Every structure is written in C-alpha cells, then in structure tokens.
C-alpha cells in the first residue's frame, strides 16, 4: 500500500488539502496525517504543536481558536504557488478523501486524553472506523482509544530497534492492528514474524528508491512516503 506522508509532502506543503489531493492524484492508497486540538476543542491537521514552522502564525495550537488558526497561511512557507492554503480540520480532510482510501491518523499529543475522546466521537460520527488506523508514539494513548472503542484499529509507532516488536505488540491487553517502525530499524525477520502473527507493518518515512525497493522485498504491508508517485512508478515497473 502506498501511503502519502502528510499528503504528498515532498511536493506540496505538508498536511494541507492540496498535499492530500496531490497524493490521491499520484495514486496513493492511504494518507498519513497528524492531529492536534485547538483551544475550542476542534481537531486540526498539523504536525507540530505550534504554528511557527508551517504557517505564518505563531504559538501553540491549543491556545488558539479554530477561527484564529484559519486566518493563517499554511502554504506560502513551502512555495509562493501554495499561498492561501489553511490548516485543515480533520472534517475537511475526511470530506476530501474517498472512503476506499485508508487514513492513518497520528495522534501527536494526548492533551490529557481530550483528543482521544474527540477522535473516537469523530470516527463514530463519520462512520469511518473500519478504514482508519490511529497511530501514536504514545502507546498508552492508542491503548486508551482501543479501550474506548473496540472497533478502532490502533498502530504502534516506534523509532528504536525493538528486540521483538511482535511480542511487544502481542503483550498488550487490547488488540494491536499494526506496527509503524522507523524504516531504518526494520529487518525482514521483524516483518515476517509480524505478518505471520496477523499484524500489518507500515514503516515510515522512506523516500529513496533503494529503501523503497528493500522494504517492498521485506514484504511490508505499506510504505509511508513523501513521494507516493515515485513509489507508484517503481511498483508498476516491477
Ligand atoms: O506516522 C509516521 C510518521 O509520520 C511519524 O513521524 O514525525 O513524520 O510524524 P513524523
Ligand atoms: Ca506523522
């Protein structure tokens, strides 16, 4: 599965509607995005906790209302041609992305559990639990989400070379759906053991041809990439 990281992040401003649209045009089968909570408890799509790097605004997202966040430009920093983009709400992204495209929602920060409750309510309201994976580096957070909603699919993000990722995932008292390792820390044995145990494996974030080919040979379920079009072309050539 080709998964567009923050949209087609390599060619458009990350986590914007234009980046997601471009990922879809390039043939992605999944979209990865990051979420945060605003002061008025709306879920918005942005990687950082602050607006500083990817918009012309400043400060913590959680200290601003959605209407204030919407006044900032989220495209110009990447290139003049993307001027006018705004930080999207999760609703806006779900309106854009067809139901057959998997959405991987990464929870960046739990906001004392508030974002988890909001997200579960959101996924129920949108009737989208079956084709969404909720992942996080905060494994207690995704565990709470699964405890709240048994239909939720949860994924474990990790950056280190775990001794036995499958045993770790299977040690949870709830069902873990997928592993999301940093691609450099993954080996073929990990992938085989995980997939044989029924876990899906989505490494992040591979962009070089040699890495994309290596991960494909490992038999991963999907690859999270900034260049979905490149991965699509590679897979077509094989
Ligand atoms: O979900 C995979 C990947 O996006 C995790 O790292 O920093 O790009 O959010 P980051
Ligand atoms: Ca992410």
TrEMBL record:
InterPro entries: GP_PDE_dom (IPR030395), PLC-like_Pdiesterase_TIM-brl (IPR017946)
Domain GP-PDE: 1-235
Pfam families from the UniProt entry: GDPD
Classification via Gene3D superfamilies: Phosphatidylinositol (PI) phosphodiesterase
The protein's name: Glycerophosphodiester phosphodiesterase
Organism: Paenibacillus violae
């Amino acid at each position: 599965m080709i998964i567009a990281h923050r949209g087609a992040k390599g060619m458009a401003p990350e986590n914007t509607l234009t980046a997601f649209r471009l990922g879809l045009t390039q043939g992605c089968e999944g979209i990865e995005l990051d979420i945060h909570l605003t002061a008025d408890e709306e879920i918005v799509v942005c990687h950082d906790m602050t607006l500083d790097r990817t918009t012309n605004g400043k400060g913590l997202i959680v200290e601003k209302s959605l209407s204030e966040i919407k006044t900032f430009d989220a495209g110009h920093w990447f290139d003049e041609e993307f001027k006018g983009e705004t930080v999207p709400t999760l609703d806006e992204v779900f309106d854009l992305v067809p139901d057959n495209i998997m959405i991987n929602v990464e929870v960046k920060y739990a906001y004392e559990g508030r974002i988890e409750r909001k997200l579960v309510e959101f996924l129920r309201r949108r009737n989208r639990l079956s084709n969404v994976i909720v992942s996080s580096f905060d494994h207690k957070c995704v565990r709470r989400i699964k405890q709240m909603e048994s239909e939720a699919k949860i994924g474990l993000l990790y950056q280190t070379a775990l001794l036995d990722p499958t045993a770790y995932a299977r040690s949870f008292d709830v069902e873990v759906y997928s592993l999301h390792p940093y691609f450099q820390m993954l080996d073929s044995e990990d992938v085989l053991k995980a997939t044989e145990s029924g876990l899906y494996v989505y490494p992040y974030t591979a962009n070089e041809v040699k890495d994309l080919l290596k991960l494909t040979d490992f038999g991963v379920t999907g690859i999270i990439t900034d260049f979905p079009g490149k991965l699509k072309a590679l897979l077509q050539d094989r």
